[in-house]
Design goal:
Shape: globular
Strand order of the largest sheet: 1-9-8
Mean pLDDT: 95
Number of helices: 0
Helix content: under 10%
Structural class: mainly beta
Oligomer: single chain
CATH class: Mainly Beta
CATH architecture: 3-layer Sandwich
CATH topology: Rieske Iron-sulfur Protein
Length: 109
């Protein structure tokens, strides 16, 4: 199986987010904040709907939290835990990634 490059690290500002990317049967997105890169499945744990309305629009206006555009839940971009909204305390599903030569690559599940 060939590796899937999601995006280049240089294309992902800090703070910033990119996606969704189709990996197998799931859509994922990546978040860069405070020098840390995380990837999450693009599914709200409250409504099981995609988080964004437009590609690459996963962060709130302050670029502090991942935002569900459907109902306004706010998720910590590092832990995936919902800190505000109807699914408070629940969390996004992490997706494994690795960084190799400036490329963010989907990991094996």
């Amino acid at each position: 199986m060939s590796e899937q490059v999601l995006c280049l690290l240089s294309d992902l500002p800090d703070p910033g987010a990119k996606g969704p990317f189709r990996v197998g049967t799931v859509d994922v997105f990546v978040v860069h904040q405070g020098g840390r890169i995380r990837a999450w499945e693009n599914s709200c744990p409250h409504a099981y709907a995609p988080l964004e309305m437009e590609p690459d629009r996963f962060l709130d206006l302050t670029r502090t939290y991942v935002l569900c555009s459907l109902h306004g839940a706010h998720f910590d971009p590092d832990t995936g835990i919902c800190v505000l909204g109807p699914c408070k305390g629940r969390h996004l599903t992490a997706y494994p990634i690795r960084i190799d030569h400036g490329k963010i690559i989907a990991g094996a599940r």
